[in-house]
Amino acid sequence: MWSWAVFVPHPPIIIPEVGRGEEKAAAKTLEGMQRICSELEDERPESLVVLTPHHVMGKGLSIICGESIAGDMGMFRAKECKLQAEGDFELATELAGHVKKEGLPVTMSTGKRVEMDHASFVPLYYLSKAWKSLPKLVLANPLGLSYEQSYFLGRVLRRLELKGKKAGIVFSGDLSHRLIPGAPAGYHPRAKEFDALVVKAFETSSADELLSLSEDQIESAGECGLRSALAFLGIVEGEPLRLFSYEGPFGVGYCTAIWKPAKGRGDIN
C-alpha cells in the first residue's frame, strides 16, 4: 500500500541555506511544505519514490537508483547543505517490471553512487527535517512519457503491489515559469491560466482539463511539472486530495498538495 503521495515544488530558494532570507517571499509555499512535514512526521516510510523532471532522461520512464543517492546545494551557494540516502534496488526493479508489464516504456539507470538533482533534493530536505533521516530512495524521471502516458503512469503506480512494504511517493514539479515580467522563462499573459487549471484539477481530483490542454497552452506556461501533476492525479484516481498552497512569488508557480488512500478501497495493495 502506498501510505501517501504528495505534490511539491522544487525551487532551491525555499531552502534557508540557499535563500538566505529571500525564501520568506514564498511564505505560502513554506507553510505548505511545513504542513506536509507535520502530516507525515509520524509516517516515515521504509522506501520513497521521487518523481523528478530534472534527472537523467531516457526513453519512457527513467528509473534511477544507486547504492547511495546523495547531493548538495553547491550549485546554489550552499555546499554545506547535504543529503544522503541508501538506494532501494529491489523496489526500483519491481517498479520497472510493473511499469513495463503495463505497457509503458522504461529505462533503467543504476550506479554505485547516484547524484541527487535539485528537484529531488528540495522536497527531501524538508522531509529529512521531519524524519531526522531519509528512507531508501528510488528516483524516476517522467519526461520521456507523453502527457497521457504520465496520467496512466499514476494509475499504474496505484496498482503496484508493494508486498507489505510501507512506501510513499513524491511528485516534484514547478508550474508555469512565465507568470510575471522578468520570470525565468520570460513572461506570457496566458501563463496564469495554466496554473489556475492545475489548481482546479487538484481541487476536483480530475485530470480531464489538463489532458485537454493544447501544445500552445502548455508552451505558454514554460512548465516542468505537468507530467508530475498528471501522474499525481492518476494515482489519486478521483479520490479527494488536499491542496495546501499555491503562489508564484518569483514568477514560477509553486503548489503543495497531499493525498492519502481512502480506507476500505479493495484495489489498494
Automatic annotation (TrEMBL):
Oxidoreductase found in the keyword field: yes
Keywords: Dioxygenase, Oxidoreductase
GO MF annotation list: ferrous iron binding; oxidoreductase activity, acting on single donors with incorporation of molecular oxygen, incorporation of two atoms of oxygen
Gene3D superfamilies in the cross-refs: LigB-like (3.40.830.10)
Nuclease in keyword set: no
Superkingdom in the source lineage: Bacteria
A Pfam entry, by short name: LigB
Family matches, as InterPro entries: Xdiol_dOase_suB
Domain Extradiol ring-cleavage dioxygenase class III enzyme subunit B as annotated: residue spans: 5-254
Name assigned to this protein: Aromatic ring-opening dioxygenase, catalytic subunit LigB
Species: Acetomicrobium hydrogeniformans ATCC BAA-1850
UniProt lineage: Bacteria, Thermotogati, Synergistota, Synergistia, Synergistales
